[in-house]
Every structure is written in structure tokens, then in C-alpha cells.
Amino acid sequence: MNQHSRMMYRTALKSSIQLAKGCTEPVAVALAAAKCGAQLDRAEPATIEVAVSANIFKNALAVIVPGTGEAGLPVAASLGYLWGDPAAGLGVIPQLTTDQRTRVLGLAHSGKVTVTVADVPDKLYVAVKATTPDGHTALTKIAGSHTNIYFVQQDDQVVWDNGKPTQAAPAGWLTFMRQTTLADIWDFAVNQEAVEGLQFILTTRDHNLALAQDGFDHHYGMGVGQAIASAKGLGNTDNLTSRIIAWTAAAADARMGGSQLLAATNSGSGNQGITATVPVCVAAEEWGSSKKQLIRALTLSHLTAIYIHSFLPSLTAYCATHSAAMGAATGICYLAGGTVEDAARAIKIMIGDANGLICDGAGCSCAVKVSTAVQTMLKAVDMALQGITVPATNGVVSESVDETIRGLGKLTSEGMAATDSIILKIMRAKNN
Fold first, then answer.
1. pLDDT tens readout for residues 138-167
2. How far apart are alpha carbons 270 and 265 in whole angstroms?
3. Nearest 5 degrees, angle CA 250-CA 256-CA 261?
4. All CATH 1.10.4100 domain ranges in the chain, comma separated
5. Burial letters for 111-146: b for 16+ Cβ neighbours within 10 Å, e otherwise?
6. CATH 3.30.1330 domain position(s) in the chain
7. To the nearest whole number, what is the mean pLDDT of the chain?
8. Mean pLDDT throughout 63-80?
9. Using one digit for the tens of pLDDT, what is the confidence trace for 159-216?
10. The Serine dehydratase-like alpha subunit domain covers which part of the protein (predicted)?
11. Which side of the chain, N or C, has fewer Cβ within a 10 Å radius?
12. What are the residue ranges of helices labelled H in 126-223?
């Protein structure tokens, strides 16, 4: 493997794994609002107008904004405008005092903050315009990624305009990932890269396990992780499988339920980062894996998740915790002494099994979907390590795991194209 390929893998990891507080869709709105607030010196706003793409709206409707105890884009925009640090990226949401929380909720419920769905083709788009009582304005626009502020205007002066990004111009590392293979990822993570150069991957362990512990220590959302950990009757299975599912769900509970701890993301999503991280860490602890083995397993997991997600839209009707769990399958296969062929079988089983896991918006029920993705993954790994896989004559599964992955991308990009609009219609109807 040449030096360029190794550099691109490291770039993909460092670009895709970021620290974020709360769900990244309302965080993007808070970031745009924070930039407006900074432009206007946090002057008391007369109005804050938020316009977002349908996918952002869908994924921000029901998720709790950290530190506020409430959900919704008016809350996220109010928090960002009043207290957010635009230089902090996905960490824009600060720790709030009681007085700050009261002021945020007061603004959010004042009628000054309005939210509309923008008529744009983008999956990820945010525009926030703030106006002060004396008529000064600030406008911030985000597109392409959750932190890509591409346009800022204050009053009539354009502060900067980098042009709205297009799907036709992906980042270099993303283009590289679309051209790689699972075998090359395995070779990089297991054989080619010195483990000292991958130490940064442990930040995913530190942050996402802390979130899981927070999910056990406090009741967030539906308390899925707590429920699985304390299940009786049919669910009373005190074993590694149960612990992996419970710990991963608990981290998602905390993240979606308003925890003020940071999540390490994967492909722009905290839940994907959690799903690619926690199962691998729990398995490594149970099996007494070395630190070096854990680093390589986490590298495998996150790179595989990035690889699969490179074929998906940035936001889609497909719940990508399922593809992130395919990354975890690869990492766990490695820890179990398996081969890249075992990992390939596990991924093909998962794509042949639950490729229709639907994202119907972010909220506390995301922890249930996370637990489903992880449960599917563990079943697939168990079967794959026994040499079982889905035959290429079945469904969307191909002979090659890489072609199967590309088929999943086509299924989600084209086959689910109409699903988002239907979900959004249902969600808006019940909230009117």
C-alpha cells in the first residue's frame, strides 16, 4: 500500500470523526444562529427566521436540545443565538446555567423564532436570519456538511460567500473512499499502518463510553439501555450480546435525550459514531483484548462505516446506524480472530437482512433503532464466523461484498427517494 493511500485513510478518519454535543441536525441550526448572534453582538432579536431542508426538519423535530430539556428548532436557534460559540463547530452548544436556560426557552416560546421548510434540493441546508429591533440583520447559510458555513451577510454587506457546495464536487478523501475496497481497509488497519499513528481513534472510545455510562446513570428518553440491562423474562440474558446492545443503546439514549456530554461522530452522526464504537469496546473488554488490538479494531470499524456511508446521501430515509453497525461487525470479527472474509460475510448478511431500517426523524426512539442495528450485527457476526452468508442469488446481495455495498447505496439513494417526503408529510400532519 502506497503512502498516498495511507494518508487518505487517515484523512478520512480525522475528517469524519468529530466531537458533537447533541443531535447534529439541531446543532447545525444552533451553529448558524450562533454566527448570526456573533455578527449582531448578541443584541436582543426582534425576529429569528430559520429555513431548513426537509431532512434537517425531520431530524430535529423531536430530539432534545442539550441543557434545555426541550426539543425543536426554535430552542436550538435561540440557544445558538444567545450563547453559542460559532468557532466551536459541532461543539457550539455550551453548558447552560439555570438563568441561561430560562432565557433560551423564553426566546424560543416568544413567537420571535419561526421555522419553515426551505424549497431547496439539498438534503442538508440551513439558513438563519436574525433581525434586531433597530433593523440590523445577519444571515448565515450552511450546506454540504453540518459545519460548512458557506455564506454570511451582515445588513447589506456580504461578509463571505464560498458558494453553496454541490454533490458534483466531493472532498478528495470521500472520492478515495468510494474507490477503495473492504480488503484494502482491512490491510491498512491490521497490517500497514503503525498503531502509534492511530492513537487518535481512542477519542471515540473515551467519549462514547462516557455517554453510555451517562445513559445508565440518568434516565434519558425511553431509557432503552437501562431497560435492556435490567430485562426480565424473555430478555433476561446476562451475556456479552446483551451488554453490547444495552451499552450502545444507553449511549444513544443520553445523546438524544439531552446529555451535555460530547459524542464522537462518524459520517456526520453521533449515533453512527456510537454504533461504530461501543460494541467494539465492550467486546474488547470482555475478551481481554490489548490496547493495540482495540485501536486496530476501532480503526477497522470506523473506516468501514465511512466506506459504506460514502455511497449514501448525507441525509436519507435509511437509518445509517445499520451501516455503522457493519463497521462494528468488521471490528468485532477482527477481535474474535476472524478474517476479512468473515467480515465480508457479516456485512452481506446484514445487507440481506435489515436493509430497510427506516429513519423517521431523530428522537428518543433512535436508541431502539440503534439496539436493532447492533442486534442484527451480532447475529450476522456469529453466522459469518461459522462460514455462513447470504447467497448472491438472493435479493440485493452480490458475490462481492464491495458490489453489495454499492448496491445498498443505490437502494438508499434511488429506491428510498420518495420515502422522506412521505415521512415528512406524516410528521407535519400530526404536529399541526
1. 999 999 888 999 999 999 999 999 988 875
2. 4
3. 75
4. 172-431
5. ebbebebbeeebbbbbbbbbbeeeebbbbbbbbbbb
6. 19-161
7. 92
8. 93
9. 999 988 875 456 789 999 999 999 999 999 999 889 999 999 999 999 999 999 999 9
10. 201-425
11. C
12. 172-179, 182-187, 202-217
Classified by CATH at the fold level, domain 19-161 comes out as: 60s Ribosomal Protein L30; Chain: A; (3.30.1330)
> How does residue 38 score in pLDDT terms, banded at 50, 70 and 90?
very high
Exposed e or buried b per residue across 224-236, where buried means at least 16 C-beta atoms within 10 angstroms of its C-beta: bbbbbbeeeeeee
Nearest CA to 31 out of 136, 117, 146 is that of 146
Amino acid at 393: T
The three cell numbers of residue 374 are: 447492533
- Asked if residue 326 lies in contact with residue 305, where contact means CB atoms within 8 angstroms, the answer is yes
CATH number of 172-431: 1.10.4100
For the four alpha carbons of 34, 39, 41 and 44, in that order, the dihedral sign comes to: negative
d(CA 416, CA 418): 6
Instruction: Report the C-alpha gap between 376 and 393 in whole angstroms.
Output: 21
Query: What pLDDT was estimated at residue 164?
Result: 86
Specify the pTM: 0.89
- Contact by Cβ (8 Å): 63, 162: no
User: In 180-256, which ranges are E strands?
Assistant: none
Separation of CA 220 from chain center:
18
